[in-house]
Design a protein that fits this description.
Largest sheet: 6 strands, parallel
Distance between the termini: 12 Å
CATH architecture of the largest domain: 3-Layer(aba) Sandwich
CATH superfamily of the largest domain: HAD superfamily/HAD-like
CATH topology of the largest domain: Rossmann fold
Strand order of the largest sheet: 3-2-1-4-5-6
Number of strands: 6
Length: 218
């Protein structure tokens, strides 16, 4: 079935959130992978808590706070690498298949968008760095409404952007919690399970599970 629009989560779905640490692994030290994992977990946790209690703060600020926590949690990591990691987060690598997949969907006449917790300037920089700006019709940040996923109002922004109903759009995310919220909202959903995580939120199951984005155009 063809969909009028395909909406993508950004971090972990289009962009590799661990690329910043991987590129600076030697500077960070032997526990770079552990630092990267904690950084990502806390970045998400801070957004969930602030969304729940109604205390919005831009995602870039939360990203910096999460990195501070990660360095405190991993004392073996060299804190002198902190600025290099933050700088690298603005130009995260996109996954190899992303440009080709977006181009194929574009050729089919579908509208393409990012829907992300990321701050507007973060997303603009990442999209431009990856060369995706000519392929996307919209880059939608939660900055517009000052709350975070998994609030229903975040997903509603895509309907307003394209003048479409949720059932006319397909939503893609690597984050299982995000997929659950998108299912609850009414999207057709695809879980990009890159790291082969066990399923959860089974009462909000995705329409499909694929290993990477190529699975949505096959």
């Amino acid at each position: 079935m063809a969909y009028n629009a395909y909406v993508f989560d950004a971090y972990g779905t289009l962009f590799d959130v661990h690329a910043a640490v991987r590129k600076n692994a030697d500077a960070v030290g032997a526990d770079a992978a552990q630092l990267s994992e904690i950084w990502r977990i806390k970045q998400l946790e801070y957004s969930w808590i602030r969304g729940t209690i109604g205390a919005y703060e831009e995602f870039w600020s939360l990203t910096k706070q999460a990195l501070d926590f990660a360095f405190d949690k991993v004392p073996s990591a060299d804190p002198s690498a902190k600025q290099a990691l933050l700088d690298a987060y603005w130009t995260l690598d996109c996954y190899p298949e992303v440009p080709d997949v977006l181009a194929k969907l574009k050729e089919r006449g579908a509208k393409l968008a990012i829907l992300s917790n990321g701050s507007e300037n973060m997303l603009e920089a990442a999209v431009k760095s990856a060369g995706l700006d000519e392929l996307l019709d919209a880059v939608i940040s939660v900055d517009r409404i000052s709350t975070f996923k998994a609030n229903r109002a975040v997903y509603e922004m895509t309907c307003e952007e394209f003048g479409l109903e949720a059932r006319q759009m397909s939503y893609q995310s690597s984050n299982r919690w995000d997929v659950a919220a998108a299912v609850n909202f009414g999207f057709r959903t695809i879980w990009i399970n890159r790291t082969k995580q066990p399923d959860e939120y089974r009462d909000f199951s995705p329409s499909f599970v694929v290993d990477d984005l190529e699975g949505i155009v096959e």
